[in-house]
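Good morning C.,

I know you're traveling, so I'll keep this short. The sequence:
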Amino acid sequence: MTDPRLGRLARTLVEYSVAVQPGETVVLTGEISGLPLIRETYKEVVRAGGHCLPMLIDETMSNTFLRLASDEQLDWVSPLEEWMAKEAKVLIAIRSTNNTRAATNIDPKRAARRARSRNELNKIRFMRSASGDQRWTLTQFPTEAYAQEADMSLEEFEDFVYKACFADQPDPVALWRKLGEEQQKYVDWLKGKRHVHLRSANADLTLSIEGRTFVNSTATHNMPSGEIFTGPVEDSVNGWVRFTFPAIREGRVVEGVELRFERGRVVSAKAAKNEDYLLAQLDTDAGARYLGEFAIGTNFGIQRFTGNILFDEKIGGTVHMALGRGYPETGSRNESAIHWDMICDLRQGGEIIVDGEVFYRDGKFAF
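The tokens, ready to paste straight into the viewer:
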């Protein structure tokens, strides 16, 4: 029998996150390991009257491609990918995996080249999303691999995921709207502010938010959500930060990341583990050394690190920053083939000062 929480999550994605309308073209992508949620989501898109195009991905073949493809093949962009970026009205992505380390030994320079070849398509998608011309959402189906990464049993991890998505409750949409109302007062307070100073044992960082917009994130894109975020003025970031949780990208775990910024740009970087991968990503393109996002996690239903950024960046009491591409709706102008989130915990001490006033202290808002 299908887990009822799976059905509630699928309905929330289709009815609330992207609000599929009759006649709209919906691209539904996902790994084969996530088929149970893909099937439920497909069912809900059809019920909503959407024209659904399901696209299944096999991670073994994807990694085989990255290992064996020629430079010409790495640079090739499928006409279907172009159509998805330029024409599809709605994108729904279901993430899942049977092996979180499957890409560990792939040359990061090859992966970076592949990412650069999609730069223009990503730019189109980000702009269409910002204008409302294309709606998208992504979530994760709980698998044994993710559970192991989080040091949980599969049953425990399923409970964690569905609770974080409010899918364990009778009316998830009502709860997401309530969270949005709570977050909006902080977004409203930040309007017109200019200067941010992040200060803790792991950071002494300043940046400008002048002319930028904070977005109230309530699961219309990421599911789960629970954050407010903006794109800092590109050349304004100065100081240093040491990220307290591992930074994970493409199956690579980079621990002890410490970055120093001058005039917005990362001028030095080090890591206790996988430093070579960190440096390779920073050299992806010019925008990879600038921040595209500065955000505060507000989902206090998520309190433990799982090794999955979709959940970890929302941990209530943390901040995260993303190297690379920013979101146009925030006012960010930074462009890059990467968007790599890294998290710093403020629950054991630290504060965010905005225009000289304490806004956030010890993992909680000051008002």
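Safe travels,
E.
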